[in-house]
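Q: I'm writing up a methods section and want to include an example of the input and output format. Could you take the sequence below and give the corresponding predicted structure tokens, formatted cleanly so I can copy it straight into the document?
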Amino acid sequence: MIKHLDFNTPIKGITAFTTERGEVNPRNKYSDFNVCNYTGDDALHVLDCRMMLCMNLGIDMDSLVMPHQTHSARVAVIDDAYMRLDIDKQETALEGVDALVTKLNGVCIGVNTADCVPIILADDKAGVIAAVHAGWRGTVAGIAAQAVKAMLKLGAKAHDIHAVMGPSICQECFEVGDEVVDEFSKAGFDTDAIVKRNAITGKAHIDLRKANAMILARAGVDNVNTQCECSKCNNKRYFSARTLGIKSGRTFTAVIKG
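A: Here is the clean output for your methods example:
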């Protein structure tokens, strides 16, 4: 169910992980393990998976926090005030949010992806962690940099932040139209560094992981592990929207400290 993610430099007291699909039923696009509740899965299945995850982590359901992502550049801070809100207000606070930041111990924050890049950030010295969902729109909008800014406000230092990326679509699989390349160019990316053309089709392929590593570097974060599996190439292990469609399960990539 859980696969641990490794930062380039080992850090104590912080655990980053991603979930795996488990036993896959080819007739069920949500099999076997899915904690995302807004892509069409049965609510009871999602609840069962969340309960199983919390038991594995040794936390209460209230300590499992994930946003309703919309490919935005919005970041939410999970603090004591948030934890005291009733469930309806918590859901409102996480609507349209694509990154979470916290200093709380024993609270698991994470994002759901199915080809987009999940990024875990951690400053173990300051005790600040973050989980980021970076699709191409969020990447263009600089969601990773916004998460770093939120971490700095909580006491983190950019040079102390470690980053690791989870399962996401590789450059070979991420074919895009020229209009997407134009959006990256308008946002100031060096497209020569992140875009290559298929020699046969002429189609553009973007390296989303490298693009986000460039964003993090500009934000002062250089300790970044971009080595991860491709969600599309390994769609029996991880969910892939390009393989299964949007109405399918999601891979949960998360971090917890303490």
